[in-house]
């Protein structure tokens, strides 16, 4: 079945137009909506790696809620725990009050994640989203150091609130702030200059040079893999050198693991591959395990200098998310099975992309674990390939400064057969637009 075969009220918005979905979306919802423009269907149910629309058509989900559904839609073990908790009138909204759900999450997070990795992090619940976590991290870094400046990187994405936007690279998103975004200085991300080995001597030199115009920063914020920036992968040695520089110069290192954490690159934290211990880590998206809003800001114990209520938020105590997160940690992280399987599955995608590049040209591959990117030399072809893939039952999205990358973030629990099925659709779509 193709879009043309659907009933007239379900053909959906043509990409970029906002036409075709049930009229309430166009008449009442803001023009700011985006994903529904590329995926013109009204969705109703989902399970595992599949999502179904109101016509009964099933789509394989290679996007997984922008990385918020690492364990798929409605995982039965997590769903059972959530329904049991709600059925027993468990607390839903708890501010930062002590609750059994929060206690059990913290105990499990300590036992399953922190202690095995020798991480002595305090846990802050800053609010329910990734940008909340970033805002708390930036504020804490400035408070702890007494400095204002933050170093960020080209093509970075850290969120849509003002502090997070100030360290984000995308010009369109930055422009949406409507005011100057200050106290942040962008630096080149790994491989920004096309393979030049970077030893950061330039960075140390400008820090030492009183004529450089650079104020000593409070922190550096970095993603080990830039998802929204186009699946740009930093080498472990680059991350290590950055961490060493920060340590030498008394600059705090913040790793934004909002999208790449919770196993997306293999290990639970993406920075584990580099063998470093950041001062501050931001976590959100898949930390709840079920797609429920939840975020953490983790930091070394000596940085816990907050006064009571100095940073807060009404919805930071999402107890149903504590419940599903606890069960997800117990289910998927009590052994290393998922950690080992994710790179293997990612390699299947990488191999298919490399084969495509060798066969037809016009594309290249980059990625790590189960964040994989197919980069088109002609940026216009990436959205076109995603449109064809959608018409054939696959959800995939673009990223990068020109939307030139088809970015895949399938559930970590996806089966090999599902990967093969999705790749067949996507590779065929890419071949069509590359002809």
Automatic annotation (TrEMBL):
Region feature Disordered, mapped onto this chain: 1-23
Lineage top rank: taxon: Bacteria
Cofactor: pyridoxal 5'-phosphate
EC number of the protein: 2.6.1.76
Any GO MF annotation of the entry: diaminobutyrate-pyruvate transaminase activity
Annotated pathway: Amine and polyamine biosynthesis; ectoine biosynthesis; L-ectoine from L-aspartate 4-semialdehyde: step 1/3
GO terms (BP aspect): ectoine biosynthetic process
Record key words, sorted: Aminotransferase, Pyridoxal phosphate, Transferase
UniProt record similarity statement: Belongs to the class-III pyridoxal-phosphate-dependent aminotransferase family.
NCBIfam families reported for this sequence: dat, ectoine_ectB, PRK09264.1
Name under which the protein is recorded: Diaminobutyrate--2-oxoglutarate transaminase
